[in-house]
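Async update (no meeting this week)

Hi team, since we skipped the sync, here's where things stand on the single-chain job. The sequence we agreed to prioritize is pasted below, unchanged from the tracker. I ran it this morning and attached the output directly underneath so nobody has to dig for it. Comments welcome in thread, and please keep replies under the output.
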Amino acid sequence: MTTAHIPPDWAFEFHGHRCPFMPIGYRMGRLALERLGIDREKDHGFYVFPELGEGHPQTCMMDGIQAATGATYGKLLMAKTFYGKLAAVFYHPDRDAVRYSLQPDFIDEMGRHEFFAYRKRGVEPSQIPADITEDLIRWVADLPDETIYKVQDLPDFVYEPVKSSFNKIRCSTCGEYVFERYVRTKDGAPVCIPCSGYEPPAHPRHPLP
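Output:
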């Protein structure tokens, strides 16, 4: 089945350029909401765990997922696993979880498009001729869902979000507020992480099962 989950103009504006992977993420997010039987998240009750990392292309999917689902970084509803895979897990505490990944054959076929010849030469998406970009976006939009996505229900998936707290303390060194769970102690006084000299991990991993 081919769905009509086309991103609205504001999603492209938010993303910054037109490309195929933001719409792929948008469609993935909308399909996940439908499969779980939930609406776009307004508050803080739905979570997405993209399996993408960094230092590789096609992470534009995540902006599409955010636009489609309302599970945004700003609301702490999205956290990358840094697996370096074109996939994401969608989880609602009352509706279980589902994992969507891109079909390898689809990735291979799409990679033959002229759009990627430009990208591999280092040309940014906004600088690629518009007719080439739009041709690829239309090609993807016309494909059946099952050609693009592999779907796996995850009935045993469990995630416990960190409990939120409004409590904060002023750092005794710089004077700025720091939320309580990030306060450190130095010479018996409360300090923020930068003033403590502590070096946090470069990429804190999300506690996926």
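Quick observations from my side:
The mean pLDDT is 93.
The helical segments are 9-15, 21-36, 61-69, 104-110, 114-120, 130-141, 145-148, 193-196.
Reply here if anything looks off.
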